[in-house]
Amino acid sequence: MRGDTGIPHPCGACAFYPDSVWQPVENGSISMLARAFSRKELANGQTLFDQGSENRGVFCVSRGLIALRTHHEGGTSTLLRLAYPGEVIGFRSFLEDRLHLTEARALLPSRVCTVARRDARRLVQANPTVLARLASRCISEIDRSHERIIAAATASNKQRLAALLFDLLEAHGEREGNHLRMHLPLSRKDLADLIGVPPETLSRLVGRLGKEGFAIDGRNVAIPARTAAKAGTEPPLTKTCPAAS
After folding, report:
1. Do 126 and 175 belong to one domain?
2. Of 118, 151, 184, which marks where a domain is finished?
3. What does the alpha-carbon distance between residue 136 and residue 128 come to, in Å, rounded to a whole number?
4. Which residues make Cβ contacts (< 8 Å) with residue 7, sequence separation at least 6?
5. Could you tell me if residue 171 is inside a domain?
6. What's the pLDDT score for residue 29?
7. Which of 33, 79, 148, 183 could tie 193 with a disulfide, CB 3.0–4.6 Å?
8. Which among 224, 211, 214 is positioned nearest to 180, based on CA atoms?
9. How buried is 164 (Cβ within 10 angstroms: 0-12 exposed, 13-18 middle, 19+ buried)?
10. Could you give the number of structural domains in the chain?
11. What is the pLDDT of residue 233?
């Protein structure tokens, strides 16, 4: 995808381009987007931005897995959610012109595309559809929070843990023979945070899932492929942005 200037759209070769918040940028604005655009490779455990730090732009996860975490006084923390490839993060602090309320850290080797804040603001002003897409992402986050509240009220803890494991398998698992396998990219404490249970409860849930076909040994997880098929999790398990690979 090229504008009238002949400059390619920075997101044009990405698998997530049709849904990109920057897809509506065209013609003369593409040169501004290209100037503000950068890609960063994150090692496992590397921080993209810290809680309380100044916003530097709008971030899109194009590969890997990012943990959004809040830190509390006394040194404890809570994992709020995971950001998978194709998701945009950091945009609320961008829109509200405030400090980040969470930390963003890579749980796997990841790639993040960034549009720097100053030019991102100009692009939003010149392309109202970009702002509409950012607003849509905000609504999606609200809907996701509502879904978690509803799930906590209507689904059992075991069902919610199974659903989370299926999501992780779909994004990061591999098929080996008749099983889907993965190395969990997060700790059991983080799993407990995501489904809202104490760590000791999680241990009991893991034991109960073991009776239903899940093999969970430390951070190694395996389930029969037929079980994943029933849950709608089948290879190919994930897609990532091929750009700059």
Report:
1. no
2. 151
3. 13
4. 30, 31, 34
5. yes
6. 92
7. 79
8. 224
9. middle
10. 2
11. 46
Residue with the larger pLDDT of the pair 29 and 235? 29
Q: Is residue 239 part of a domain?
A: no
Question: Please, what's the largest Cα pairwise distance for the chain?
Answer: 61
Asked whether residue 202 falls in the same domain as residue 135, the answer is no
Candidates 19, 141, 21, 149; CA nearest to 81 is: 141
Residues in the chain: 245
Query: Looking at the structure, do residues 142 and 188 belong to the same domain, yes or no?
Result: no
The model's pLDDT over 34-88, given as tens digits with 9 standing for 90+, comes to 999 999 999 999 999 999 999 999 999 999 999 999 999 988 999 999 999 999 9
Q: Do the beta carbons of residue 70 and residue 51 sit within 8 Å?
A: yes
